[in-house]
Amino acid sequence: MKTYLKTLATVFIALSSLLSFSAFALPSGSELKVGAAVWNLFDNADRHALHTAYIHKPLEDYYGIRPTVMLITADEGQHYFAVGAAKDVYAYGDFSVRVAFHAGIVDESEDLGDSIEFYSSLSAMYRLNQRVSLEAEVGHISNGGLGDINPGSESFVTSIHYHF
């Protein structure tokens, strides 16, 4: 129970920070993301995490790829630090679909088999207004066979995006 309260408090602080955030120094068209995740989705869905990310504006000279930096903080204290790329592959009105791929390092690798992990995701977003979008994401983390074992894990993430 304490873990849930701690995660809820962290999400509240992160959202409060987003709402009072001054984005003048960051490129227009970029996003900040905060979300709550359930991991081990196809096993027993017993892990929870906080996902945070900075998603850069689309690089028009590079097919609209969006560089990203991500941090996943799991309920038992593990952290996943990653860099990657996202691409908006479909848009219709306020609805859009995005794919993303990240490569990063997990600080406690016993459960995942290696300290180097890859995270890929598919998400659907709905834009509420000029500044805020809601996202539902399905993701998979794996070491790509680099470790002695490669259990992998799937996640479902609900997030809020702040656009600036």
Would you kindly provide a brief summary of this structure?
By secondary structure, this protein is mainly beta. It is built from 1 helix and 8 strands, in the order αββββββββ. 11% of the residues lie in helices and 53% in strands.
Secondary-structure content class: mainly beta
Radius of gyration: 16 Å
* Low-confidence region ranges: 18-26
Total DSSP helices: 1
The shape is globular
Report the span from N to C terminus. Answer: 35 Å
* Main sheet summary: 8 strands, antiparallel, barrel
Q: Helix amount, in percent?
A: 10-25%
- For the biggest β-sheet, the strand order reads 1-2-3-4-5-6-7-8
Find the count of extended strands (DSSP E, 2+ residues): 8
Topology as H/E string? Answer: HEEEEEEEE
Report strand %: over 45%
Describe, in plain words, how this protein is organized in 3D:
By secondary structure, the chain is mainly beta. It has 1 helix and 8 strands. The protein has an 8-stranded antiparallel β-barrel with strand order 1-2-3-4-5-6-7-8. It is globular, with a radius of gyration of 16 Å. The model is unreliable at 18-26 (pLDDT under 50).
